[in-house]
Amino acid sequence: MENVKSVLLVGVGGQGTILAAKLLTLGLMEAGYDVKMSEIHGMSQRGGSVSSQVRFGKQVLSPVIELGGADLLVSFEKMEALRWLEYLRPEGKVVVNDYEIPSAPVLSGAAEYPAGILDELCARASTIVVDAAAEAERLGGAKAMNVLLLGATIKLMGLESLDWEKIIRENVKPQFVELNLRALAFGQTLVG
């Protein structure tokens, strides 16, 4: 099953992780790939860990990425990157948003947000750090950071030739289409 590629998208509820995975899946399906996607929502309404696993290739038998099986780990929040790092292949890459969302224990004062996360990620894996929230805000709205990270994913997985504009236009609310198209294009420039 060498032809199967695995992308793990992780974040915190409310960041648009699942929408980004859905857009990726729809684009891959339209391009003729066999695609399997699975989601874990946890307490994803706001603040809980969220993960989406997208596997694609000629024939995909399982939607689940095993430990050490992800070609690409895309993290919308930096602590989540560290939490899911064991799923990355030794030769895999990490794209991490330099963004913090304090967990409930941190907010209550029972714990501190760990320091040095980005340094640890860079020491343990091939890591690209982006400030997706600031870049999306600069493009017109911080809510587009998920599609900006999707753009980085598309570039790193060599999927630029697919019709992503069509996928965005068909699956994003009309008032956000242009912003998301700009974010998608800009995200590709951050990693290549």
UniProtKB/TrEMBL annotation:
NCBIfam families (UniProt xref): PRK06853.1-5
Top-rank taxon, per record: Bacteria
InterPro entries (alphabetical): IorB_Oxidoreductase, Pyrv/ketoisovalerate_OxRed_cat, Pyrv_flavodox_OxRed_cen
Oxidoreductase keyword on record: yes
Gene3D superfamilies with a match to the protein in the record: Pyruvate-ferredoxin oxidoreductase, PFOR, domain III
Organism: Yanshouia hominis
Keywords of this entry: Oxidoreductase
Protein name, UniProt field: Indolepyruvate oxidoreductase subunit beta
Transmembrane segments: none
Pyruvate/ketoisovalerate oxidoreductase catalytic domain segment(s): 13-185
